[in-house]
Specification:
Radius of gyration: 20 Å
Structural class: alpha/beta
Membrane topology: Peripheral membrane protein
Distance between the termini: 55 Å
Helix content: 25-40%
GO molecular function, one term: ATP hydrolysis activity
Order of helices and strands: EEEEHEEHHHEHEEEHHHH
InterPro entries: AAA+_ATPase, ABC_transporter-like_ATP-bd, ABC_transporter-like_CS, ABC_transpr_CbiO/EcfA_su, ECF_ABC_transporter_ATP-bd, P-loop_NTPase
Bound molecules: adenosine-5'-triphosphate
Shape: globular
Pfam families: ABC_tran
Domain ABC transporter: 14-243
Strand content: 15-25%
Number of helices: 9
Length: 283
């Protein structure tokens, strides 16, 4: 792997160029590639979604963007604004990623990385516990907490670290609506404060029209652009939308919009959000 050397030293883009990640456990020549010829740029403070079918390579790409060590990587990676330390990376299952024994410890450990003074760590920990509703279970060990509470603590700790980038790998998909809303709010605030967010999702209804989507298919970047173009654009090679070409199913309403465009009953820009649909059907 080549580490690119860009002179400005300031908060420049994270760039990966022609990166391959080999599979493991088979003879080198036959090992299936987990990622193939991936080239992309991520700017400071950007929010990107990574979408793709099961096993397409989403987590491999997310872990690479987070700067986690990985076998078999070749190509050029410049971590730019994300810095030399790995970004906080939250997975779907909380247990493998918890360092502390309780929510309070988990958040304190994240803050200790920032080399803050002890009273500042205590203050920020108390504030995070209170905001997330974890205050009343702050010192309860993990085995007496629910999976949702453990996951919320993992997300709160990742956010508390105020890192330049945060990587969430289907991190909210197992949460109930109320806990997901708390977690989403924390993440949105961190983004507003300047952190880049990399969000792996299978929930296509989370995507807003102007948001950037990276789609992965069989280890290759099959799309990099705005969500509206992902759902309603045209993939030359397959003659369907980039979403469908990536093996993903658009929502019923999106399929309806696509069918109506084919019949000449609807024109671009096709509606995506509830507000846009209301406008189109004059509600
Ligand atoms: N540590 C590893 N070593 C070798 N191959 C791996 C490793 N982890 C995953 N793979 C393989 O790499 C491919 C991509 O896996 P990855 O977990 O990145 O996909 P994904 O899109 O995140 O899948 P899912 O949605 O199921 O989580 C899969 O074929 C998987 O079996």
């Amino acid at each position: 792997m080549t580490l690119m050397n860009i002179a400005d030293g300031a908060a420049h883009d994270l760039q990966i160029r022609d990166v391959h990640v080999a599979g493991a456990g088979e003879a080198e020549a036959q090992a299936p590639l987990r990622l193939r010829a991936v080239t992309l740029t991520l700017s400071p403070g950007e929010w990107i979604y990574i979408a793709g079918t099961n096993g397409s390579g989403k987590s491999t790409l997310a872990r690479m963007l987070a700067g986690l060590s990985m076998e078999g990587v070749s190509g050029a990676i410049d971590r730019g604004f994300a810095g030399e330390y790995p970004a906080p990376y939250v997975m779907q299952q909380p247990d493998a990623q918890l360092f502390g024994e309780t929510p309070r410890e988990e958040i304190m450990f994240a803050l200790e990385w920032m080399e803050l003074k002890a009273d500042e760590i205590d203050r920020r920990t108390a504030e995070t516990l209170s905001r997330t509703g974890l205050g009343r279970v702050a010192d309860v060990p993990w085995d007496r907490l629910s999976g949702g509470q453990r996951q919320l603590a993992a997300i709160a700790a990742a956010v508390a670290a105020e890192a330049p980038m945060l990587v969430l790998d289907e991190a909210t998909s197992m949460l109930d609506d109320q806990t997901r809303a708390i977690a989403s709010e924390l993440i949105r605030e961190r983004h507003a404060a300047g952190s880049a967010i990399v969000w792996v999702t299978q929930r296509l209804d989370e995507l807003m029209p102007e948001q950037r989507v990276l789609a992965i298919k069989d280890g290759e970047l099959s799309f990099d652009g705005r969500a509206r173009d992902f759902f309603y654009g045209w993939d030359e090679a397959s003659g369907v939308s980039p979403c469908e070409a990536s093996g993903l199913q658009p929502s019923y309403l999106m399929r309806l919009a696509l069918a109506m465009r084919t019949e000449g009953l609807m024109q671009d820009p096709l509606p995506m959000t509830e507000a846009e649909w209301r406008e189109v059907v004059n509600l």
